Amino acid sequence: MHRFHVDGVPKLALADDENWDRGYSDALGALDNAVEHIVIVPVELEFHPERRVHWEAVMDNVCSELHLIPEGERCLAGCLHWTFLRHVLPDSPSSEIARTFLIQHELFEFAEKFADRFLSLIASKEEMVRYLFLTFPEIPKSRAALEYINSITGTHQKPIS
Predict the structure, then answer these.
(1) Quick check: helix, strand or coil at residue 159?
(2) Is 70 exceeded by the pLDDT of residue 134?
(3) H helices of 10-51, where?
(4) For 62, phi and psi rounded to 5 degrees?
(5) Which of 18, 38, 130, 141 has its CA 20 to 30 A from that of 46?
(6) Between the CA of residue 63 and those of 4, 36, 93, what are the distances in Å?
C-alpha cells in the first residue's frame, strides 16, 4: 500500500479502454504481485527476518509445482521465480530445485540474463514492466496499463511504452 499510495509506484492493470476480461485482469494482478514481491520482500525480511520461514515455505511450494506450469508459461514463470530466489533467498534450498528445472528445460542461461537485467532496473517499476513486456512479447501489452493511485485525484492510467 505504501508503494502505491505514498511512493506513487504504479500497479499493472487491465487498460481502461479494454473490455472487461477477468482472466487477463487476474493474470496481470498475479504478474504485478510477482514484480512487487521482488522489490518488497527484501525490505520485509530486513525488518522481520523471522518471515524468512514463510518465504522459504512459499518457494518450496512453488518449486514443488514447477512441473505443473504449462509449457507456454514456463519461461516467464521460470524467469520470475529465479529472479526472486536469486535476489531474495539466494541460499535457499529451493534455488537448486529451480536451477535444475531451468537447466532441464534449457532456460537457465535465459533466466540468468533476465534476472541480471530485471534487477538492474529495480529502482523503476515502469522500467521493470517495460523490460518484462519487451522480453515476453506474447503478453498483450496493448491490453495492459500502468495504473497510478492518488487519494486526492483518483486513479489514472498510462500505456506501457
Answers:
(1) strand
(2) yes
(3) 22-47
(4) -60, -50
(5) 130
(6) 29, 19, 10
> β-pairing, 11-14 with 144-150?
antiparallel
Computed over its alpha carbons, how large is the radius of gyration of the chain?
Answer: 16
Query: Do the beta carbons of residue 41 and residue 80 sit within 8 Å?
Result: no
Query: Grid coordinates standing for 23?
Result: 482472466
pTM (predicted TM-score): 0.93
**Domain parsing of the chain, residue ranges:** 2-159
Cβ count near 109 (within 10 Å) = 10
Q: Contact at 8 Å (CB) between 38 and 87?
A: yes
Segment 91-120, tens digit of pLDDT: 999 999 999 999 999 999 999 999 999 999
Give me the residue label for grid cell 499493472: 12
Sequence letter at residue 124: S
**To the nearest whole number, what is the mean pLDDT of the chain?**
94
